[in-house]
């Protein structure tokens, strides 16, 4: 059955066409193989969490969809259209920039290190692409931007420059900037990994709101297991360039099947556990 | 139009003058280094008066044209009884002008030596002079050699200015050949090529030196 | 022999200074154009375009400005059978020469804009041209200013060479004054140096002003 091969179905249970299809996608750098013949479907509005050890290829998976890296082999389809290839006179050739530009409009990305434009105010960061890429009028773009910035809780900072914001605030702006383009699929590449622990919550809460609001599919590459469990429809575990196991959060976290996943999760639980023990002993001392 | 046989004919005459151009570069460079080191020390001096004077001198010389400075040395100083030959005035001018650049290079090299080296030298009771010669300079100089190499190449390309104070070097010779035969094209083009043949490989060499010092 | 006070030199020197400023400004514009054009050529994906840019830079950096000046003024007219004015030759030679040095500044500044900025712009589906214009270049320009400032001073000094192709710049007027009263030679040259110094400082001041203005909004 299709479900078992590709592991997912759209949130309302009805079979829809996947909005993203990876078919036998591989990526190597020289002799190093980062991704090995990946097959993956993502359905419209589906929230997919991707977990795995560093170097397992999960970031590359997202970057290839965002056209930041080119697959060494295989095809990626977005909304029924090939991303990295186009048909010219009945033959498949590598896509040119014009084609990439067209298909890329359906994908958005939030980066680990935010990458806000330092020479623009917060408001301009969010209106720049709508005005110059989507061709919106300044008035309309500003209206949309202010709406989005209010949703992420930063209305009071619209005229500030990024250097004045905390990491959590910067990431929230980055999310607003990406979402305002209304992509079909949003990629979050370790969106909270570069944040101080006390700032992680505000960003996760924004992502949670986005997930609830929407018909936007999301791919969340993350180490925040609890969070992944909360909002994901499906969790994918990658290791050494392959998808080792996937399923619902309950299946993955409570009943991991493969030994590699079990080892990965136990390492995580240990760290969490050790962190918890430390915290407990510190608060004990304080008393 | 271009005449190959004429070009080959005048080539020896131009090549003959190369030693003078190279000599002017070498002596000028040596002068720049010799004058630059005390200048950089003056700039770092703890006596405000000395360091301000040094900064003022450096800024003034660096911001004014070498050509005018050469004219000053060659045409103005004789009025005070100091007469230089074209070669002497040339290398002195080059040396004075580029000593200001060298002083900045030396300064950055010296500053790059970690403070701990000075302290270790003091702890071992090294005298001031020994500290400089045995500990500081051996560490300061190697990283700045590529930059010094670049300035050497730059000074080589500045030697044609010395033709303005009547030194017979490459450009002056080309001008003489050209005005004699009214054929400027071959003479000046050959001079361009000769300069390029020297400075381009040299700059590649300097680039390689830079990589080697970065690896250390 | 006329006994002249140095203040009588001033009008003539100022006339020369005007020519110097004219050449400096025109050559600066030419140099900026060459620097950006060749900088972008060297960043191009096409190997041929990169080669053209590199050849231009290495040739003009690898030969002497004075020789280039003489070549453009004396040799090129013979080659192309045309007449080139001293002013045109001066602006061309100085512009091309310093443009080659500026090219490296342009290239390295653009390259030092963090890769993440390129990626964020791509993620927002900006075309490469839009990305360069509104994200990369605005961040690269402030990085270029200090080096451009240094090159500007060098360019100003370079204009003194145009005296040697008989352009009536500041140095030329100084030499003319010398011929009126050679006993005042030291004073004349001192005034030349002083005037050049003032010009250099004015340009430095303008660059510093631009640096401050483009630094707005940064930590």
Describe the structure.
The complex is a heterotrimer of chains A (287), B (216) and C (219). Chain A is α/β, with parallel strands linked by helices and 287 residues long. Chain A is built from 10 helices and 12 strands. In chain A, the strands form 3 sheets. Chain A has a 6-stranded mixed beta sheet with strand order 8-9-10-3-11-12, sandwiched between helices. Chain B has helices at residues 4-43, 48-63, 66-76, 86-111, 115-123, 128-158, 170-181, 184-215. The model of chain B has no long low-confidence stretch (mean pLDDT 89). Chain C is mainly alpha-helical and 219 residues long. The mean pLDDT of chain C is 90. Chains in contact: A-C, B-C.
Give me the secondary-structure topology.
The complex is a heterotrimer of chains A (287), B (216) and C (219).
Chain A: H1 2-6, E1 20-29, E2 32-42, E3 47-51, H2 58-65, E4 73-78, E5 81-82, E6 85-88, E7 91-94, H3 97-104, E8 107-110, H4 122-132, H5 138-151, H6 167-179, E9 185-189, H7 197-213, E10 217-221, H8 225-231, E11 234-239, E12 242-247, H9 249-254, H10 259-286
Parallel strand pairs in A: 3-10, 3-11, 8-9, 9-10
Antiparallel strand pairs in A: 1-2, 1-4, 4-5, 6-7, 11-12
Chain B: H1 4-43, H2 48-63, H3 66-76, H4 86-111, H5 115-123, H6 128-158, H7 170-181, H8 184-215
Helix pairs in contact in B: 1-2, 1-4, 1-6, 1-7, 1-8, 2-4, 3-4, 4-6, 6-8, 7-8
Chain C: H1 10-43, H2 47-62, H3 65-80, H4 86-111, H5 115-123, H6 128-158, H7 170-180, H8 185-214
Helix pairs in contact in C: 1-2, 1-4, 1-7, 2-4, 3-4, 4-6, 5-6, 6-8, 7-8
